[in-house]
Amino acid sequence: MNGKRPRGSPYRLADARERFNGWRMGRPFLAGILTVLGAISILYPSYAGLTIGQLTIHIATTAGCGSLIIGGLLVMLGLVMWLQPVMHVFAGSGAILLALASIPVSNLGGFFLGLLLSLLGAALSIAWTPSQPSSAHPSSSMGS
Hints:
By secondary structure, the protein is mostly helical. It has a domain at about 35-130.
């Protein structure tokens, strides 16, 4: 038997899940998710309208342009964390600077939710270390 599974095999989903888990473990995945979620919550209040009964409220200020720039850059840095894990320190540092810049520029950093999510994601990205491949323990090969 060659070890390959047939096409209609139910194990294909398990194989895909294993490949995804292997890909996910080789990069700061949670840091990227939190950074992108923070970017979305920074972008959202500037472009969404709130409707209460017949009253529609739009936050139409100069924060719209700043939110678009900061949110877009945070999304790109979150993707860099996933696609270029070697640059995790650069992406995390840039995300911290952008998240802090979002306080005065874009509605208090997405009403502090985007600020906190982006800062947490950036800190996780900076603190992330690549996992070392497991090797045999050095003392296991030595005789007693």
